[in-house]
Design a protein that fits this description.
Layout (H helix, E strand, L loop, with lengths): L1 H18 L7 H31 L8 H4 L6 H11 L6 H31 L9 H25 L19 H30 L1
């Protein structure tokens, strides 16, 4: 009987622990987690960005201007979307988190295409370039982790409504080896700028 009673108590304790409602994390904690993840991405991506500039272009300070980027083939979709982000005047937290999620969708899609380009660079006959497909793949994975954290914030700010995802799609036109290498650098440069902006935004929202 004693054993049976103890089992009953254990069951009640289990139910109390696992069936009781869990208090949601404070928004400040969620913002802090998002900022930490974005900071990790910024650090790792910055190192990759500098490595590619140094390795492929022998210039760690190289910057491709936006006007120069318009001569690189195959980025019409991306240019249109990033212009929309730059001209956005959203300042409230719910809108800002939604906008970051939208553009992380776009940047993730863009970097997956850059990753595919890296694979094609390695397969081109006569190419002497180091291939950074694996490193870019890690950045893509890290973006997914950041998106998961931002979705939790979005759901809290929108009273339970889930983020539905960006409706835009991004495609690249085929271009030669020099064009592909330059396009990849410009897009990696753009993500480097974006993730620094994101860290600053999350820091502001956290404070």
């Amino acid at each position: 009987m004693a054993t049976s009673a103890l089992k009953g108590v254990s069951a009640l304790v289990f139910a109390a622990i696992f069936l009781s409602p869990v208090s949601p994390e404070p928004l400040s904690q969620l913002y802090s987690m998002a900022m930490d993840q974005a900071t990790i991405i910024r650090t790792r991506h910055s190192a990759l960005y500098t490595t590619i500039k140094t390795d492929r272009f022998r210039n760690p300070d190289l910057i491709i201007s936006f006007s120069e980027s318009t001569t690189i083939r195959g980025m019409d979709d991306y240019i249109r979307y990033i212009r929309a982000f730059e001209t956005s005047t959203i300042t409230n937290a719910p809108g800002l988190i939604g906008k970051h999620l939208e553009f992380l969708d776009i940047f993730r899609a863009v970097l997956i295409l850059v990753q595919d380009d890296e694979n094609s660079i390695g397969q081109q006959q006569g190419s002497s370039y180091t291939v950074y497909e694996t490193e870019i793949s890690r950045v893509v994975g890290s973006i997914g982790h950041l998106q998961a954290k931002l979705r939790r914030i979005y759901t809290r700010l929108h009273e339970g409504s889930s983020y539905q995802g960006a409706t835009q799609t991004v495609t690249f036109d085929t271009c030669d080896l020099d064009c592909t290498v330059k396009r990849g650098l410009f897009l990696i440069q753009e993500f480097s700028y974006y993730i620094s902006l994101a860290v600053n935004n999350f820091n502001t929202l956290q404070s």
